[in-house]
Amino acid sequence: MKLIDGKAVAAEIKKEIAEEVSQIIASGGKRPHLAAVLVGHDGGSETYVANKVRSCEEVGFQSTLIRYEEDVTEAELLACVNRLNDDPDIDGFIVQLPLPQHISEEKITEAIDYRKDVDGFHPVNVGRMSLGMPCFLSATPAGIVELFKRYKIETKGRHCVVLGRSNIVGKPVSVLMMQKGNPGDCTVTVCHSRTKNISEICLQADIIIAALGVPGFLKGDMVKEGAVVIDVGTTRLPSDKTKSGFRLAGDVLFDEVAPKCAWITPVPGGVGPMTIVSLLKNTLLAGKKEIYSQ
Predict the structure, then answer these.
(1) Is residue 9 included in any domain, yes or no?
(2) pLDDT for 141-200, tens place per residue?
């Protein structure tokens, strides 16, 4: 079993981005600027956004954090999105999900200018991704694909089983894994809460990408010898052994599954750090106007 160290790869990519930003500034170019909009005080969102802000500083980006309380109206949030769309200094921005129930995530996502949608959630970017056209890729799926690339893990002709069908991870990563090229060229099966015989399907998989959000779902008897397992799960569970009072649990029962794997990602330190660097890569592309001219 070999561990896929997302933290180490993310650090390597941050160094590459920082070097490119230095070159841009040295040649008189504009420093990339990422903005994040955070509504409320969800613990997971607070941690994630704080990591994004810190990562921006590490690579030389300018960053802006805009905060709203949970009682912000949909109209107020849409007005904020429109201001960011129109601000020429902002290269890319995200509205951190989840949002309060009284606000439509769909409306907010569609209101974001797709040319600044560095989360890769806008229908234009999702559609272009499905067609294999240049676009901003959804950050977590892009990070997963980058791990396959950096570790030179063969995907061509492999059977990839994706557990989960969310718009953020399950659907886009299934599309990326079946695209022509490497990583890609997989035969992909998508399983979800209504799938029958999930254990039997997983046992056929050369690659399993677990993105259900169910701690410990994938067990040792569901994985064949030599499989590659990517654990996207990051559920916060109470813990009296950590300063924060919680621990992150993956979708994979690591101690059972790892001994059977050729490669596996840990939680934490696997996919999570790659999500943030993918967002940084998208922001760099947005700043350089390499995908969409503005």
Answers:
(1) no
(2) 999 999 999 999 999 999 999 999 999 999 999 999 999 999 999 999 999 999 999 999
Looking at 5, 14, 42, 52, which residue is catalytic? 52
pTM higher than 0.85 for the full model? yes
Distances from the Cα of 223 to the Cα of 14, 150, 202, 216, angstroms: 33, 24, 6, 13
What is the domain-level CATH number for residue 104? 3.40.50.10860
Q: Which of 170, 192, 143, 198 is nearest to 14 (CA)?
A: 143
Catalytic residue among 91, 119, 206, 231: 119
Catalytic residue among 14, 42, 96, 206: 96
pLDDT tens for 87-129 read 999 999 999 999 999 999 999 999 999 999 999 999 999 999 9
